[in-house]
Amino acid sequence: MKPLQGGWDELLSGLFSDERYLKIREFLKYEYTHYVVYPDMYDLFNCFRYTPLKNVKAVILGQDPYHEPNQAHGLCFSVKKGVALPPSLQNIYKEIESDVNIKEPACGDLTKWAQEGVLLLNTTLTVREHHANSHSKCGWAWFTDSVIKLISENTQNTVFILWGGNARSKVPLIDADKHCILQSVHPSPLSAYNGFFGCKHFSKTNDYLVKHGKTPIDWQL
Predict the structure, then answer these.
(1) Claim: this prediction has a pTM higher than 0.90
(2) Which of 24, 69, 92, 124 could crosslink 140 through cysteines, CB 3.0-4.6 Å?
(3) Which of 50, 57, 49, 102 shows the shortest CA–CA distance to 221?
(4) Is 202:118 a contact under the CB 8 Å cutoff?
(5) Catalytic residue from among 18, 43, 64, 145
(6) Are 165 and 195 in contact (CB under 8 A)?
(7) Cβ-contact 178, 200 below 8 angstroms
(8) 64 catalytic, yes or no?
């Protein structure tokens, strides 16, 4: 694997040498060889590559990658340029427009957020084509839970944005005395009207960051 750089190699070295991660690697070798798996293996750790550890201001937790062609590229909720916006991302954009008065963008590529300091981390990092949650039992939960704990332990005044039951189950991994935890239902069409719309997590994130001497996030894409 190519080095992640940005301080991540040092922070995550213990995970990458752990037997549990080596088992994930063996599983992925088989899956990528025998099936279509998303994201592309070279995009697998993009969330770390685009957001150096020292730049992390906020963490948005997703579940598993999009499982249809040309969507997933290693950043939760994000799709590649030119790809139709998934319903959850459309709802995220609606909330941004309502909250911070930024017009809904036409593009679903959230790379700029990653470069602004938003770690866009899925709790499962891979998926088999057309089969949602197909890799959720392969060990990724241990890996990403460990990542969340390490970020909590090694950063200060980070905003953890948790949408939906899967993400909210990670609250015990985060030190609430050091960080801000924002929670709501998932932005999917099934639940967005039950508390996601109106949550104002984008303005609340920036209010917290400014209060703690950090530059606010430019949510404009």
Answers:
(1) yes
(2) 124
(3) 102
(4) no
(5) 64
(6) no
(7) no
(8) yes
